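Reviewers asked in the last cycle whether our approach scales beyond single polypeptides. To address this, we selected a multi-component target totalling 524 residues and predicted its structure end to end. The input consisted of the following lines:
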Amino acid sequence: MFISGFIYILGETFKGLYRNRWMCITSTGVVMVTLLMLGLFMVVNLNVRHITETVKEQVEMVVYIEEDADRATLEELGSLIANHREVARVEYVSSEEHMGRLRQQLGGVLEGYDTDLDNPLLASFEVSTEYPEAVVRLADEFETYPGVSAVFYGQGYVENLFEVTRVVQIVGLALMAGLATTAVFLISHTIKLTVMMRKKEITIMKYVGATNWFIRWPFLMEGLLMGFVGAVLPLAIVHYLYRISVEWVAVNELMFINLLPLETVMAELSLYLIPLGIGLGILGSMFSMGRFLRV
Amino acid sequence: MVEAKNLCMKYGKGKQMALDDVNFFIDRGEFVFFVGSSGAGKSTLLKLIIRELKPSKGALKVFNRDVSRLPRHRLPYLRRNIGMVFQDFRLMEERTVYDNVAFAMIVIGSSRREIRRRVPHVLNLVGLQDKAKAKITDLSGGEQQRAGLARAIANRPAMIIADEPTGNLDPGTALDIMNLLRSINLRGTTVLVATHNREIVDHFKKRVLYLENGKLVGDEQKGIYTNVH
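The resulting structure, written as structure tokens, was:
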């Protein structure tokens, strides 16, 4: 029973695809273009996210200590910051170390000055947080601690970076949702035409006692295959284009463009695009069949 | 086997009653003609029996179950016990006779062995054993209706419903098809035929239910079309 039904469904799927081959090729092509756009956008989005995350990880704050803070205040402040649950790493930098760094940065400019006697630089704690987004809030909190002179974290720049990242992600999600809806519409439209062409057959199936699922399966499989092919081909194209891009960035030594490795991008993309293609195909067929099954 | 009690059917508000307070009982193994002019309610009645439509009022029992209360997912199992024959044959034209008959069996999940054994047998019963590999489009009208009959009996249904089965056939072929239906009935299958064909009804002298404007106006055993009219 199972075998004859299964062979029938499989046979009908391929017969259906063959009978309407031009329509299937056209709609798979359109689905492919849609998923290719989606894939390319995902690649851009993944890399923008990667680059902003990298920048975000570099966001640190510097907590400057008051010049007249005594040793006990310094130790208490150090332990308060280090034990804060949102703080990942703390490093104490004395005023002498700051001067050393400055000397290094300025080269010979400070030659001849006795900076040990008249050092205007304040000692500080350099703090990395668990989440970059916590920086702004923690800076406000640390400013109220005793012995703190000022807190710097790139005010303005960090807020802008977070805002841009948020907007990029929201726009990305909206665009992806739009493209996915288009793909569902296209697959649904193609399968609807297939179903209409086979309306007579479906009516006969209902009269001889076929269950709705028995009728649905070949159409679901058609949608599934169209979605699968429509996802695999864009993956191959994205793979080719991304490989070229990574090589181009390497050849031109544009090291500031910190692209994700090819394997990571393809793994991430396959994880989303193939189930998405299959899901869209199945969803499209489900939408197209509803009223034809009411015989 | 089929029992109608105060059965009413109206297609929409303000429309005339397609069936109006119809009552009858058909027993297992009967051969019944539903006769009447176009629009009398014959096809509506058959559609109610296979639950293609739901009655507006009253009860209709098929195989001792009120079909109007049958949940949608149980419909396929009701229809597996009913073989349908149509005036326009409703065959898959681009396929062979064998495929059309086998299709009805595949749909209900018969095994491949059962299908290989049963299809030649039913084709033999309707006299199409030599046409198994022929495409439907290569058959005459009478042969197409035989293929339709073969498909209807493939799953050994308890009842055959034929809606104007001879409507598209010449008198000689029509008689052949009716003889086939009679022989199927003689094997114990209940046969319900909706028809206008006066000659056929008069020739076979079976039970006749006469419908007029949705009302059952005559029910006669061994009736003839002219009598009940």
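Chain B has eight helices and ten strands. We regard this as preliminary and will revisit it once experimental data from Aim 1 are available.
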